[in-house]
Design a protein that fits this description.
The complex is a heterotrimer of chains A (about 120), B (about 100) and C (about 120). Chain A has about 120 residues and is an alpha/beta fold. Chain A contains four helices and five strands, in the order βαβαβαβαβ. Chain A has a five-stranded parallel β-sheet with strand order 4-3-2-1-5. Chain A starts with 5 loop residues before the first strand and ends with a strand. Chain B has one domain: Hypothetical Protein Ychn, Chain: A (3-Layer(aba) Sandwich), CATH 3.40.1260.10. Chain B is α/β, with parallel strands linked by helices and about 100 residues long. The radius of gyration of chain B is 12 Å and the shape is globular. Chain C is mainly alpha-helical and about 120 residues long. Chain C has two domains: about 35 residues, Dissimilatory Siroheme-sulfite Reductase, Chain: A, domain 1, CATH 3.30.1420; about 60 residues, DsrC protein, C-terminal domain (Arc Repressor Mutant, subunit A, Orthogonal Bundle), CATH 1.10.10. In chain C, α2 packs across α3. Classes of the chains: A alpha/beta (about 120), B alpha/beta (about 100), C mainly alpha (about 120).
């Protein structure tokens, strides 16, 4: 079976919904099957990459700790769409380690399958 | 190697269309479905690169009383939607 | 609420609730004695080599808030315990069947994320 390249795009912010965790879990499934996908944070998704996040007010898990563990599943680096970052007045120094800049249009064009979260 | 982009939300309640503008490449198709068809009243209210085909799903336009502005938007029925899914390389949902 | 399907009884009489997969219902209830009791019920003998992996898993969970699936367990064992122990063969010899799943249970973690 020829394997298809998979792109997981995370477009929602962390904490307010479980979209980010869902996206990460999809990426982990790919990794567990020996096909680590590319993961890209775009739109409000780049907010999941902010450094210094903590648990929710009621102790709910966020996604930041999980993100730091993705490299152990060979899901790396954490790509971010640079225009989305700029549009939010942020720069890479405010993100967690392991993030790299990408352009979403190129990323989509380079993969066979795109999953959006 | 083109991409089919699906929009199912009203352009007036979301910023998704602006995100989409950075994510399309020449030769891609954008298809408005469900509440996305409200974007088809006029010219796109956001800036797109050249060479993108714009479609609105006929069934969803009909149910919402939307007549797409024919200058910009083509209409496509369900069968066309299915055919387009098959003829493009990948599909991205912008929900 | 999770159905209370099983309990462990500790030496001081404390009852610890387990879920239907034998994992702790409340992860805060873990102690080395809990791991010991679970192992005994399953007919396992815990050696220092086992404890090393159990500690590794607890550390992984504290850092990443998930239990590692096999691939990540092997990789983290290789990083923390060295090349010799960072192999699935070694981990299989300690925890036959499914190292990621069995060791997570003994370490008081939930089921590994996407352990297929």
């Amino acid at each position: 079976m020829s394997s298809k390249s998979i792109l997981v795009i995370v477009r929602h912010p962390p904490h307010g919904s479980s979209w980010v965790r869902e996206g990460l879990e999809a990426a982990l499934v790919g990794a567990a099957l020996g096909q680590p996908p590319t993961i890209l944070f775009s739109g409000d998704g780049v907010l999941a990459l902010l450094a210094n996040q903590q648990r929710g007010a009621l102790g709910q898990k966020g996604s930041a700790a999980m993100l730091e563990g993705l490299s152990l599943y060979d899901v790396e680096p954490l790509w971010y769409d640079h225009l989305s970052l700029e549009a939010r007045g942020l720069d890479v120094s405010q993100l967690m380690p392991g993030c790299q800049q990408a352009c979403i249009a190129d990323m989509i064009a380079r993969h066979d399958v795109v999953m959006s979260f | 190697m083109s991409t089919l982009h699906l929009i199912n939300r009203s352009p007036f309640s979301t910023n998704v269309l602006h995100e989409l503008a950075d994510a399309v490449s020449e030769g891609d198709h954008i298809l408005l479905i469900e509440d996305g068809v409200y974007a088809a009243f006029g010219a796109p209210c956001w800036t797109l690169p050249e060479g993108i085909s714009l479609w609105a799903l006929q069934e969803d336009c009909a149910s919402r009383g939307v007549t797409p502005s024919s200058v910009t938007w083509g209409t496509m029925d369900m069968a066309g939607f299915v055919a387009l899914t098959a003829s493009t390389h990948r599909t991205v949902s912008w929900f | 609420m999770t159905q209370n399907t099983d309990t462990l009884t500790l030496a001081d009489g404390t009852e610890i609730a387990l879920d239907s997969d034998g994992h702790l219902q409340n992860l805060n209830n873990w102690s080395p004695e809990v791991a010991q009791q679970m192992a005994e019920r399953e007919g396992r003998v815990l050696t220092p080599a086992h404890w090393e992996v159990i500690e590794l898993l607890r550390d992984f969970y504290t850092r990443f808030e998930m239990a590692p699936a096999m691939r990540a367990l092997v990789k983290t064992a290789r990083q923390q315990l060295g090349e010799e122990k960072g192999t699935s063969l070694y981990l299989m010899s300690l925890f036959p069947e499914s190292p990621a799943r069995v060791a997570a249970r003994l370490a008081g973690l939930p089921r590994p994320t996407n352990c297929l």
